[in-house]
Amino acid sequence: MTATPTPVTPTPRAERATQAFWRRFRRHPGGVLGLVITAVLLLICIFAPWLTGHDPSVQYPNGLSDMGSPLPPTHNFWFGTDALGRDVYSRLVYGTRTSMLIAVLANLIATTVALTLGTIAGYFGGLVDTLIMRLTDILISFPVLLLAAFLAAVLRPGIGVIVSVIGGVSWFYLARIIRAELLSIRHREYIDAARALGASDARILFRHAIPQVLGQVLVYGTLNFSTTVLFVAALSYVGIGVQPPTPDWGNMIADGSQYLTVSPWLVIFPGVFLGLSVLSFNLLGDGLRDALDPKSGKKAI
Predict the structure, then answer these.
(1) In the predicted model, what is the mean pLDDT of residues 41-56?
(2) Is pLDDT at 212 greater than 60 in this prediction?
(3) Is the pTM of this model over 0.90?
C-alpha cells in the first residue's frame, strides 16, 4: 500500500519577505551596531528609575568640593557632579529619556503630516498637488534649524512646544519623497485594475498605494531621528528648548561649557551620549535602507 505524501504548505509571501529582510539586515554590520545602540538607549529610557541611585534634580550637600566646585567621577557619583551638586549620571540617564521622548513624538508628527500631504498631492494631483508642493517649497527655503528656533522663541518654551515645533518643520523632504512615489504608483496596472473593479480611492490608497511607500517612510524616519535629537540639543543649548531643571543633553552641555577647562566631564558625558545616539540612528537607517532594497540582496549573493 502506497503511503500518501504529506502536502508541503508553501511559505507565505509575507514570511519569505520578512526572512529575506532580516537576512540582508544581518549582513550589514553597521545596521546591526546601530540597532544594538538604539536598543540600549531605549532600555535606558524605560528603566531610568532603576538605573540611578540619585534624584537628578536634588542638589546634594556632599556633591561639591570644599572649594564649591563640581566633583569629578567617584564611587558615589559615577559621572561626577555639576555646579549645583547634582549627580551627572542621573541627569544623563533622565536626559536620555527626555531627548528620546521628544524625538519619538516629533517624528510621529512629522511622519503623519508628510504621509498625509505627500499622499494627497501625489495621488490626486492637479490643483491640490500644486498648492501643497508650493507650500512645501516655501517652507524648505527657510533654514530648518533657524525656523525651529524662531518658533520656539516666539512660543512658550517647553517639551510640548518643542515636540510640535520640531515635528512641524521636519516633514518637508519626506512629503516630497512620498509625493514622487505616489505619482509613479497611481498609474500602474494594479491600481488601474482596482479602479476598474470599483474600488474607492480610500481603499486603493490604504490597500495598494500607501504600503508601497512604508519602507521609505521607515528609513527616512529612522534617519530623521538623528536630526531631531540634534535639534533638541541645539534648542536646549541656546535656552529655548527643554527648560531646567528638566535634564536634557543640550542644557547639560550648555551648563557644563562654562566649566569646560576645570570640569570637562560635564560636557564629555552628555556629548558622548549625543554622538552615540546620532551615530546609531544613522547606522540603523543605512541598514534598513539596504535591507529593504531588493537590489542589495542581489549584490550580496
Answers:
(1) 86
(2) yes
(3) no
C-alpha to C-alpha distance for 187 and 202, rounded to whole angstroms: 16
Q: What are 205's three cell numbers?
A: 490608497
Residue 209 grid cell: 498605494
What's the number of domains the chain is made of? Answer: 1
88-124 and 29-46 helices cross at what angle (nearest 10)?
120
Residue 272 is part of which domain span? 25-57+85-300
How many CA atoms, within 13 angstroms, populate the side-chain half-sphere of residue 252?
Answer: 35
Sign of the Cα torsion 32, 36, 41, 45 reads positive
For residues 45 and 101, is the Cβ–Cβ distance under 8 A? yes
Alpha-carbon separation of residue 229 from 35, 103, 253, 286 (angstroms): 16, 6, 14, 17
Rounded to the nearest 5 percent, the helix, strand and coil shares of the chain are: 70, 0, 25
In a domain, 175, yes or no: yes
